[in-house]
Amino acid sequence: MLSWIVSWLKDLPPELIVIIAGALPVSELRGAIPLGLYLGMPLLKAFFWAVLGNIIFVAPALFLLEPASVYLRRFKLWSHFFDWLFERTRKKSEKVLRYETLGLLILVAIPLPMTGAWTGVIAATLFKIKFRYAFLSISLGVILAGIIVSLLCTLGIISWKAVAG
């Protein structure tokens, strides 16, 4: 799927491609940093654009997720989707419930599937974490995840081909 997205965006500047990949829930910065390296960017430049792309949606999403989900739940399809999404996030975010903002930071910082800024926004919304604490925890978690992913890329453990499948 990521390869298809990148081929669709191929005519855009590489920085914009990395920002978009960083903002997408299917890749976030775990895919955007290796993509930036694949596109020929230096590591720090790929890190910067990927982190920016991953953080840029956090504030609007923290404000809009709850009202949007309440509105869309009026429709059966969306109600099922949000039930599934919130239940899946509840299962993945036991540490958030226990440690609140520190748990939220850890949830976002661990670069594994089904963790990251999008899951952090959902968890913060579910557990009613105040905006300023949620935004700071998610942003710091994104930066830590970016450092981890950059280190793994440098060591050759993660590459674009591995991420894109």
- Mean of residue pLDDT values: 89
Structure classification: mainly alpha
* Low-pLDDT residue intervals, each spanning 5 or more residues: none
Overall form:
globular
Structural description of this entry:
This protein is mainly α and 165 residues long. The protein has helices at residues 2-8, 14-23, 28-38, 43-55, 58-72, 76-92, 94-99, 101-109, 117-126, 131-154, 160-164. It has 2 domains: 2-55 and 153-164, no CATH class; 58-147, no CATH class. The longest helix is centred in the last third of the chain and has 24 residues, at 131-154.
Task: Spell out the blueprint of helices and strands.
Layout: H1 2-8, H2 14-23, H3 28-38, H4 43-55, H5 58-72, H6 76-92, H7 94-99, H8 101-109, H9 117-126, H10 131-154, H11 160-164
In short, what is this structure?
The protein is mainly α. The protein has helices at 2-8, 14-23, 28-38, 43-55, 58-72, 76-92, 94-99, 101-109, 117-126, 131-154, 160-164. Helix 2 crosses helix 4 (43-55), helix 3 runs antiparallel to helix 4 and helix 9 (117-126) packs antiparallel against helix 10.
